[in-house]
């Protein structure tokens, strides 16, 4: 029973350490934002909208994860070395 608890604690600690080490950098977020916008619209890619959005984004590290915002809207979320760019929401 104690051995199982120690193994679980060690695995949990390893996951937390990995999350800290693999937390995406601001540059990784910005590169993914540029890429995602260019993939969604060729015109936006040609006009450099992705680069402009990436430049205007603000990086927020949380230790084990991170996110970027533009005008108080979350644009991307990252953890474990992966960055996910959110679809723009249509506001009424």
Mean pLDDT: 91
**H/I helix tally:** 4
Largest beta-sheet details:
4 strands, antiparallel
What assembly state would you assign to the polypeptide chains in this entry? single chain
Distance between the termini: 56 Å
Number of strands: 4
Beta-strand proportion: 15-25%
Helix content: 40-55%
Task: Characterise this structure.
The chain is an alpha+beta fold. The protein has one domain (2-85). 54% of the residues lie in helices and 23% in strands. It is built from four helices and four strands. The chain has helices spanning 2-22, 26-40, 42-47, 49-56, and strands at 58-61, 65-70, 73-79, 82-85. A four-stranded antiparallel sheet has the order 1-2-3-4. Strand 3 (73-79) and strand 4 form a beta hairpin. Helix 2 runs antiparallel to helix 4. The longest helix has 21 residues, at 2-22. The termini are far apart.
